[in-house]
Amino acid sequence: MSKNAGARFATSVIGIDTNARYALQPQNLEERASAALGPAAAYTEEEPTVSEWLRELVPTKAGVLHYFQSLFPCLFWLQRYNPRWLLGDAVAGFTIGLVVVPQAMAYAVLAGLTPAYGLYTSFTGAVLYWVFGTSKDIVIGTTAVGSLLVGQVVNRVKEKNDSMYDSQQIAHTLSLLCGIVLFFFGLLRLGWVVEFIPYIPISAFVTAASITIMSTQIPTALGIKGIKSQSPPYRVIIDTLKALPNTKLDAAIGVSSIVLLFAIRAFCSHMESRQPAHKRAWSFVSSLRLTFTMLLFTLISFLVHGFKKLGTPDLSTALIQEILPELPAVAIILIIEHIAIAKSMGRLYNYSINPSQEIVALGAANLLSPFVGGYVCTGSFGASAVLSKAGVRTPLAGAFSAIMLILALYALTGVFYYIPNAALSGLIIHAVCNLITPPKNLYKYWQLSPLELLIWVACVAMAILQSLDHSIYLGVGLSLALLLIRIARANGGFVGVARSRRVPWVTDYPADKLADSSITNKDVFLPFNRQGASNPAIVLHTPYPGVFVYRLHDSYNYINQALHVDILQSYLMNNTQRTSEEQYEHESDRLWNDSGPRDKLLSQHLPYLRALILDFSAVNNIDITSVQGLIDLRNVLDRYAAPDTVEWHFANVQNRWTRKALAAAGFGYPTSQNPEALAKWKPIYSIAPISDAATCTQNDHRRRSCAPASDEENNTSPTWSQPTTNLENDRGEATILAVDRPFFHIDLHDAVDAAVRDARHKDTSGSI
């Protein structure tokens, strides 16, 4: 028994009729098209299959090779490395090293660790990123937001377990878990998932994190003791204000460091505008203000040299279980912060990055970090901005910044040992001030989307009143809810036709010649509800009495199908009249909401329903529920228009699986089984050149009408059951879309032409 015979036997046993979908489809569509098109070829569409889809998922040898090569982007540019790139990378790398050292030490304190741990963390990002990364401008290291999250996780775990674990062990375990998750996330090339998290929650989170960071650092900058920084920010701010009388001498250092940092930045910005020729030099000086300030407030002493914390992280199963609930928020922020910076730099300097590969690099850095004593790291916006301005040429600049970090660990650690905590707090406060969303951006959000601004406010409020992880969850949840609501309420609209004329700009064109026939004329389709951007004074009309065009403004799926179906049914029945009155044996059999003949009298001036055209230009995929909604509506309209049937035309259906689903549901072709009606039906085909043959003329796109076909029915197996393409003879032109799906049209104009032609034929022939 052959494979096909076995499949047919199996389907017959379980009661599946594979040819049921073709029962109402005319069997001679391809023959009629071939007869009408003459020398042009008739194309029939080959439907996609599950086996074809599965074959596309199987990786090829070339695809596997490309995947492994893409894991190491450095292989593509190292072979072209040259001395000029080396010089640019060395200068940029050493420059960013000077900036990263004080930043890393300050952010380590924010994470509840000693300053040396910040250097360890930044070292891992610098030494690994150039191998895996795809951006030349990214600096992976400690960040204010990441360090704050680590500090919060450390404090929560220690409080819950009575300080059973030390801060370093918790931070190392968190980094290792993040590294594992991110590394495999990137290996699976799931970087596109990041796009599910919109910009607004991230903007709100960064602003809230900045406020949180400042609230926790102000007490240290003022020398105030006894403030529980783990409390919600509003509580910390209130407690700090109450404790202001307890301010100590540390405030002189903290406040003066903040003033000095802002003064240097303001002075350098002023000089950049005063001396444009030396703008780069002043920008370089400004980028080193953190280093200058730290040196000013530091006493030279001794700090433990080198990688004293080098070794395997001390892992505990119980600790891992404690950290796992905190992992999602930390991982999400690390990914988003890094990808956002990488994309921003790519847009700024005209190159593209691979999000999945960036996540691989981020995961690798976090995997290595705990082995050298560091904690979680991600892309740093401030350091990346400095690196890009310093003239970086390739990702290898990170290796040079790693040299600076090693130098700091082995030779300069004593210089930074006695940095006052107040000065570190001042540095942190200054660094995060720039992260707060300015009022002008909030006004821009209001102009772009007021609802998203409300989400932003809700996220910031949640962070201040509760915690940062609750803020990010709330923001993502509200954004997804807003997305679902917009999809669910994305109703379409009926459109009308307006005859437009395109008037060229010619200065000496006479005003009284605007009606000249040489001016381009065309039909445009505009919404009847006037909610679009078009001039509401423009006169619109339906393409033909009884022919209606419905445009879906967004996707069509199970979430919004009920809304679309309700709009379609209500509008069509309110703007047409029933073809024939339903007959009831008893008047009481009539539905309670059917007012009967009275409606008939009121609707006598309305046309009969002839055709419905759906513009699917905004639709890509459909599902079972949405297709069933169309089937149900078709049944309702056919009863309404009986004994006639309503033609369904579709424009701009590009997805093959969507076309297959619609065809399987009985759409895409005439379903009338009246041989006489089918014989009089004349489809319209759109044809175009298929080669550079001499037959190709300036008329690259034209329509042909089908001549009347024979009334004789073909009782043999339908030719459309095995789709073919009759292009074996180079005849110059062929149909653009399949001739066995004549109600699927290349554009809205073709769909309207076909529907109007059929409706006019019914009216002139006296057909009901």
Automatic annotation (TrEMBL):
Topology term for the membrane: Multi-pass membrane protein
What GO molecular function annotations does the UniProt record carry, in alphabetical order?
Answer: secondary active sulfate transmembrane transporter activity
> Where is this chain compositionally biased, Polar residues type?
715-727
**Which InterPro entries would you find in this protein's record?**
S04_transporter_CS, SLC26A/SulP_dom, SLC26A/SulP_fam, STAS_dom, STAS_dom_sf
Report keywords, A-Z. Answer: Membrane, Transmembrane, Transmembrane helix
Domain named STAS is located at: 545-667
Q: Which domain of life is it from?
A: Eukaryota
Q: Supply the name of the protein.
A: Sulfate permease 2
- Localization of this protein: Membrane
Checking CDD domains in the record gives: STAS_SulP_like_sulfate_transporter (cd07042)
For whether the record's keyword set contains Transmembrane helix, the answer is yes
Q: Which GO terms describe its cellular component?
A: membrane
Q: Which PROSITE patterns match?
A: SLC26A, STAS
The record lists the membrane-crossing segments as: 85-101, 108-132, 138-157, 169-188, 251-268, 288-307, 327-346, 358-376, 396-419, 445-465
The region called Disordered is annotated at 697-729
Q: Does the keyword Ion transport apply?
A: no
